[in-house]
Amino acid sequence: MNTTPVTSGPSGDTVVVTRVADRQWHALDDDLVAGRGHAEQRPDGRLFVTIDAWHDAAFDRLAEAMPTDLPAPLYTLVDEADTELTAGWRRAGFTVRRREREYVVPTDPRVTGLGAVLPPPGVTIVPAAEADETMLRAVDRAIRDEVEASVGWRSMPAEVNPRPEDGTAAGPSVYAVAAAPDRYLGLIRVERVKRPRIGLVAVRAGERRRGIARALLAHALGTLHRSGTAAAWAEVHESGRAASALFEGIGARSAGSNLELVR
């Protein structure tokens, strides 16, 4: 535990930042908690920080103190509509790394129009938890290599990168795949932590424009619908026109945008 004081805050008293646990900090203003900071390492190895503060002085002090205890680079995610929070992170030296559009995606096939969508000839959809892990890791690695050779895998959303030691897919439990007789051609990742999130829809470069992505979406959304889930969430990079068109074409509605910031 350590403490670092600074004279600031609406009361004019000293704001003291204390590290209360590993990667957790409190800002005290006149002995009252005026803000909390937290750092979390995501599966891809990147370190994300968050601050919940009652006033700017507490936020700024936390944003100043936390990086002294943490290795660079640091990342954070904010709702682009929250201009006050974005300004606070900018004051702390963070800059915009990527912008994502967030979508609410209906699951009802009568709304999405995906009820009659089938995979192309010779392709079958293997449900989540039933994929062969060796073949899943092979298609995951192939797609990562293709992305790395173009825009770079680190341009992908923070939540998409489930990277254990060997850098490939974490396991079959959250992935459904499009399978040919000898290999997997594409995959869809659906996480169900706080709300169903479509973290990734990806198809091998040589297999695109065959309807595989739509078939994967039809399967995943249909599965959610049958389980009683009315909507899922998805994020699309601002440059991802094809992905935006795919989601908008099945009735997804924009729910704002997020910024990933980095220092």
From TrEMBL:
Molecular function (GO) terms for this protein are: acyltransferase activity
Q: Which UniProt keywords apply?
A: Acyltransferase, Transferase
Stretches assigned to the N-acetyltransferase domain: 123-263
Keyword Transferase belongs to the record: yes
Entry's EC annotation: 2.3.1.-
- What Pfam family is a match for this entry? Acetyltransf_10
Q: Which CDD domains match?
A: NAT_SF
What general EC class does the enzyme of this chain belong to? transferase
Top-rank taxon: Bacteria
Q: Which InterPro entries match?
A: Acyl_CoA_acyltransferase, GNAT_dom
Name used for this protein in its record: GNAT family N-acetyltransferase
Q: Tell me which species this is from.
A: Streptomyces andamanensis
